[in-house]
């Protein structure tokens, strides 16, 4: 089981601070959402993060090791439960007029959906394997590394410089990821010696 250390707490704080700096750096001129929409969106994001955290911790707690689970069967059941439990809300939202439910208009959209399904499955599969091989904390902080990678891609492909606050936030996320990995290795050495 993963232990809580001072290094992990500091790295979580650095990661959260880095994410706050990056997200607070949104350009208000291009943002057309109202303050209420932004607060509502942030609350939904926090609820999603809470559900993700509970899911990650319970999966690691119940499975413990990668060899104790058949990943194909596990994701098959996840897909089945999503299919069974997520259709009724979509139909209700369609009937109430909140969301229009219709088939894609052309074959290109079907191709996009297929590629997205494959990419999503691969991402979820690799996430679960990484989480079982390391820890929920390592994988979660690793997911936030998409922010510095996106910043580098913006520079390389679009020649776009981000603000110093954004770059500082991305640097804090990188430092946080390094600290979590370093502490994970220390935990691994102590566990082998016990």
Write the layout of secondary structure elements.
Elements: H1 6-23, H2 35-63, H3 71-96, H4 107-133, H5 136-143, H6 146-158, H7 164-193
Structure description:
Belongs to the SLC35F solute transporter family. This is EamA domain-containing protein. The protein is mainly α and 194 residues long. The protein has one domain. 78% of the residues lie in helices and 0% in strands. The protein is built from seven helices and no strands. Helix 1 packs antiparallel against helix 7, helix 4 crosses helix 5 and helix 5 packs antiparallel against helix 7. The radius of gyration is 20 Å and the shape is globular. It starts with 5 loop residues before the first helix and ends with a helix. The model has no long low-confidence stretch (mean pLDDT 83).
User: How many β-strand stretches?
Assistant: 0
Roughly how many Å is the radius of gyration? Answer: 20 Å
Oligomeric organization of the protein chains: single chain
Question: Can you give the helix content as a percent range?
Answer: over 70%
Family: Belongs to the SLC35F solute transporter family.
GO molecular function, one term: transmembrane transporter activity
Transmembrane segments: 40-61, 73-92, 107-127, 139-157, 163-180
Membrane topology: Multi-pass membrane protein
């Amino acid at each position: 089981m993963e232990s809580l250390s001072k290094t992990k707490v500091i790295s979580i704080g650095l990661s959260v601070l880095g994410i706050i700096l990056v997200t607070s750096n949104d350009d208000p001129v291009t943002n057309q959402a109202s303050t209420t929409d932004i607060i509502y969106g942030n609350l939904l994001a926090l609820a999603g993060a809470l559900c993700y955290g509970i899911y990650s911790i319970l999966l690691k707690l119940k499975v413990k090791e990668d060899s104790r689970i058949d990943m194909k069967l596990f994701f098959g059941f996840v897909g089945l439960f999503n299919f069974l439990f997520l259709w009724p809300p979509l139909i209700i939202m369609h009937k109430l007029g909140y969301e229009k439910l219709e088939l894609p208009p052309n074959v290109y959209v079907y191709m996009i959906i297929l590629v997205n399904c494959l990419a999503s499955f691969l991402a979820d599969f690799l996430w679960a394997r990484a989480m079982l091989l390391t820890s929920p904390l390592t994988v979660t902080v690793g997911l936030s590394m998409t922010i510095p990678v996106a910043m580098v891609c913006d520079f390389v492909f679009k020649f776009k410089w981000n603000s110093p606050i954004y770059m500082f936030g991305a640097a804090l996320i990188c430092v946080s990821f390094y600290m979590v990995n370093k502490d994970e290795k220390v935990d691994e050495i102590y566990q082998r010696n016990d």
